[in-house]
């Protein structure tokens, strides 16, 4: 289709009688224009963003000084009919380390799902999608986040399974089906008082078949007393394959709960707080997290502060046990191009310091440029 579009767009160029290229083009005929528009209408909408910059952290921060290409996302969206549409999203610069050995960057499938919109109250989704756990994983993307990075609730509780893939990031995605919708509509002010999500997924790593027969359930309710305020509660139950001592167990139960409130005025005040709890008695997992964020938009400036707490109650010497204080600002240079600066001061628990995992408080600085297309 792209070749046809290129052919139609260049077919009006002609050559002079002596063989030299003509310096002008003839007008495109109505039939050619109609054909070009028809071809373009079949193609999905392409969008995405690039986030790049510099990250510094002292030995008790993240111990690095490096330029980064933090994220590059490409999205394909297409409305198939009045009822159906699809989305595909790719992370083009995801990499990892394994035992200190560097693995090259690869293209990762983030989203690949089809949605069916019956009405505002009843919608369905099938494929690989972002789970409705918390605000940050479901309602916010890196392109719209007030800070450079998400909170530990998102990274540690949603984007990681503490039993089956404790050391692997799954980006908060999973394969399955979901029903969702908006109830109790306020037609005059254009919002719903209540929204729901009911999701059934593998409970394993994205793009892979499940490693046991149990499926993950996620339920979420969001209540809006006024348009700008959302009060959310989400719950996840699943059974996962993991080790207990030297034995491999296929069905270790685990619960995740994330609840929060968010007041958001796109031209003014932005306040958000979330609490998360994850627990599995059989797999000896218990973790708690909380963050509170405040920001205010002044024209092109968005100053922000955030407090982020995380506690791993079964691994008390882990460096994840800390209180992180963030101060930052985002400046929108032009439309779709913003400049972000974040400073983070981390205070670790006494048990972390006593174990030598961290010898003192940590400091990190992030300077990023995010361009959307």
From TrEMBL:
One of its GO terms (molecular function) is porin activity. InterPro entries: Porin_dom_sf (IPR023614), Porin_O/P (IPR010870). GO terms for cellular component: membrane. It holds the Pfam family Porin_O_P. This is Phosphate-selective porin O and P.
């Amino acid at each position: 289709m792209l070749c046809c579009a290129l052919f139609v767009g260049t077919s009006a160029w002609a050559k002079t009688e002596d063989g030299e290229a003509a310096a002008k083009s003839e007008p495109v005929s109505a039939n050619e224009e109609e054909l070009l528009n028809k071809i373009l209408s079949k193609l999905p909408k392409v969008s995405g963003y690039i986030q790049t910059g510099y990250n510094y952290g002292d030995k008790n921060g993240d111990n690095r000084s490096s330029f980064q290409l933090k994220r590059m996302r490409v999205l394909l969206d297409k409305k198939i009919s009045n009822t159906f549409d699809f989305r595909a999203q790719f992370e083009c610069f995801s990499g990892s380390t394994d035992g200190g050995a560097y693995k090259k960057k690869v293209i990762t499938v983030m989203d690949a799902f089809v949605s069916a919109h019956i009405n505002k109250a009843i919608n369905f989704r099938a494929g690989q999608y972002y789970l409705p756990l918390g605000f940050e994983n479901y309602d916010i993307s890196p392109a719209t986040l007030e800070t450079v990075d998400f909170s530990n609730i998102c990274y540690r509780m949603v984007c990681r399974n503490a039993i089956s893939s404790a050391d692997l990031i799954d980006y908060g995605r999973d394969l399955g089906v979901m029903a969702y919708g908006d109830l109790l509509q306020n037609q005059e002010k254009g919002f719903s008082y209540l929204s729901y999500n009911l999701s059934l997924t593998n409970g394993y790593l994205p793009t892979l078949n499940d490693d046991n027969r149990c499926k993950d359930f996620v339920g979420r309710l969001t209540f809006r007393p006024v348009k700008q305020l959302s009060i959310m509660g989400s719950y996840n139950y699943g059974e996962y394959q993991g080790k207990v001592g030297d034995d491999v167990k296929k069905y270790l139960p685990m619960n995740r709960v994330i609840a929060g409130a968010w007041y958001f005025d796109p031209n003014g005040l932005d306040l958000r707080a979330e609490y998360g709890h994850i627990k599995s008695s059989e797999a000896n997992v218990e973790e708690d997290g909380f963050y509170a964020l405040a920001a205010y938009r002044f024209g092109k400036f968005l100053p922000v502060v955030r407090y982020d707490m995380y506690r791993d109650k079964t691994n008390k010497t882990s460096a994840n046990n800390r209180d992180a204080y963030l101060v930052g600002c985002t400046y929108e240079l032009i439309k779709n191009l913003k400049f972000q600066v974040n400073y983070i001061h981390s205070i670790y628990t006494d048990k972390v310091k006593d174990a030598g995992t961290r010898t003192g408080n940590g400091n990190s600085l992030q300077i990023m440029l995010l361009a959307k297309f």
